[in-house]
User: Fold this.
Amino acid sequence: MRKSLIIIIPIAISLLVPFYLIETDYKFRAEVRELLYEFGLKEPPIRPYSQSDNTPIVYHALFTNVKTIIPDESDLNSKELPEKLLIPSGRYNFDGNVYDLLDEGVYRFVIPVEKNEQRIVFDGKNINSLMSAIAWIYSHGNSDNGKNFEELYSKALNSKIFGTCGTISIWIKGILDSNDIQSRIVQTLTLDNWNTYDNGHTMIEVYRSDLEKWVLYDLDSNLYFSKNGIPLSLIEFVDAVKNNNYEMHLLASDTTLDVSNFLAKNDYEYAFYDESIYANENTQKNWYKRVIQIPMIGEDEFSYFTTNNNEDRKRMESYASHHRFLTTDEFYSKFYANLG
Assistant:
């Protein structure tokens, strides 16, 4: 009886296999293949490779450019890759090879199926290069919301980070502070009808001593902005959005959205909504028109805002007791007149 069962089972499986291959998921099809191998009904493929055959891949990313880094045969004046996210340019060892990391930007070290390493080369020369590197590391999502600075910093050594605009802005400010780069977190609010998910935005302004002005960066969208070739501050950007008179500059061409795991508390997936924003320049500008309406900069326990409309002022003040109104001149004098 037992012998007849052994004969019947493989026959039944062989009859059902075509249907499974069509109607089941990949995992189940893989299980069927393994059964066929086990019963001798299908010869397993010869795989002339193993994980040990995988060789390192190292590349440099800056703005929209990606460049493969070829190892140097000489190990002269090289050092081990530090366990720090920001490192100076130099010659570094990775997996027995030496790589010249000469240009500012993000470098990725990949041994497929084994490990990833990620470092930012920054020599203090170009703020845009640093912001580009961080933009390459970060994508919009919420998997890493709630992590503190140290946790995000540690994860970034080996992985991308997925957070919302507030998370990335706080993390960026911590990195800039640790490198003595003056910056501040800034916000905007909408005056349109509010919903439960998208009523404003959080970004970061960096004081650019080379330009002698504050410059706004939206790393949640991998962008900074200009008008007539001059990078814009927060208050300048708010005005430019009203008139749709500005240019957007891409800091990174990485994967912008974490579409697989950007979930609300009720497991609602934000992918459809977010792709409607990030689809192209027009959809992005339409979204900015909604959320970039009232500029706000926090200082001490207050969030200062400005508007020329008295009704808008009353509405803003009704939202929170820590909202403090300034005239446009007062706002400019407080946050922009004493540059840096």
